[in-house]
Amino acid sequence: MSVHEPLTGKATPEDRSAWSEASVRPLWEIEQAHTVAEREPHGTLWPWRTMGPLTRRALDLASPEVAERRVLSFIAPDARPGDFHTITNLNAALQIIAPGEKVRAHRHTPDALRFVLDGEGAVTRVDGKVAPMQFGDLVLTPGNCWHEHWHEGSSPIVWLDVLNVHTHINLGTFVFEPGPPHDVPKLPADENFGISGIIPDVTATRYSPVFRYPLASVVAALESTPPAPDGSRRVRYVNPLTGGPVMDLLDCWMIALEPGAATRPFRTNAHGVCAVARGSGGTAVGAQTMRWEARDVFTLPSDAWISHTADEPALLFVVSDRELYRKLALLTEEGAD
User: How far does CA 126 lie from the centroid of its chain?
Assistant: First the structure.
């Protein structure tokens, strides 16, 4: 058996032409294959004092008849040209609807949710079930569910959209279908889930059959939840048929903070988007601190130690792609209670 001497030769133009023609690259020349880029986790904040005027201006620039959705998408500062993710797998945006407008039905494979930040009086219909929209309400539009919106109120409404579009783009599973709706499933009414601990004897679905979670119910649940050692209270929005996340790949919480002590630092390789439903304070992301107020939106990056502090009683709504990592057996977390 011959022993080869270490080679130091450089590829010739002919070599590179042959590689290009064959659509191959030598692994020894691909830097990413041998090193992991060092980066400092960084959160991004979109303050309402900036976004509020932009949503009002959007009313003069686009209409649902022309633009399909009047939406201002939050784009990660490091996004490549043409990309539109907010943070890795998640896409977040503000959607604005004026009184009397209707946004036509469609469905798509990505899961989506709506968290109302300003105004009231809009209505979302999801697979035939009607969900009124008021401030602080969470409305689900799970993947492949037909959904449409209309506005019965007297002033514009703005809500936070969060979708896992980039999860499906990266997996090659993104599908969009315009209405009109067809093959709409028959779902149990929300009233069937009104008694704690008792649910209809129906087949569990991969998403919650309850599409609207009113803020008043969430606040009541927080008030009956014992505080953590750091003083915060935390509740999870769940699928009542399984006790799991409201949608297979998106998980949601509401955190109540009292002024004073910071929450216990935690770290995860999942990604989050946070909306301030009430109050003001700050969130530490590693060495970075983001100061926030009501209706602000900010990201919670992966692999950073994160802690929240309130200046006054505050409510933080959080949506995460944690379930994606958990189902793939890739989730890592530290510090969480």
Answer: 18
How is residue 90 annotated by DSSP?
Answer: B
For the chain, how long is the longest CA-to-CA vector?
85
Look at the pTM and tell me if it is higher than 0.85: yes
* CB-CB neighbours of 144 under 10 Å: 17
d(C-alpha 139, C-alpha 133), whole Å: 8
pLDDT digits (tens, 9 = 90+) for 122-131: 999 999 999 9
Q: List CB contacts of 197: < 8 A, sequence separation 6 or more.
A: none
> Cis peptide leading into 178, omega within 30 of 0?
no
Q: What is the pLDDT of residues 5-63, one digit of tens each?
A: 666 568 899 999 999 999 999 888 887 766 666 677 899 999 999 999 999 999 999 88
User: Is residue 260 within 8 Å of 241, Cβ to Cβ?
Assistant: no
d(CA 258, CA 211): 29
**Which one has a higher pLDDT value, 336 or 156?**
156
Amino acid at 282: G
So where are the chain's domains? 45-183+209-332
Q: How many CA atoms lie within 13 A of 82 on its CB side?
A: 0
CA distance 251 to 44: 20
Task: Give the phi and the psi of residue 54 in degrees, each rounded to 5.
Answer: -70, -35
The rounded distance, in Å, linking the Cα atoms of 281 and 132 is 30
Q: Has residue 1 got a pLDDT over 50? A: no
Element of type H or E holding 289 = strand 288-292
State which CATH number among 2.30.30.30, 3.20.20.100, 2.60.120.10, 2.30.110.10 fits the domain covering 45-183+209-332.
2.60.120.10
SS3 55: helix
Q: Is 183 left (phi over 0), alpha (psi -120 to 50) or beta?
A: left
Question: Which contiguous run of DSSP H or E holds residue 171?
Answer: helix 165-171
- Tokens (6 digits) for 164: 């896992």
Say which residue the tokens 């959209």 belong to. 161
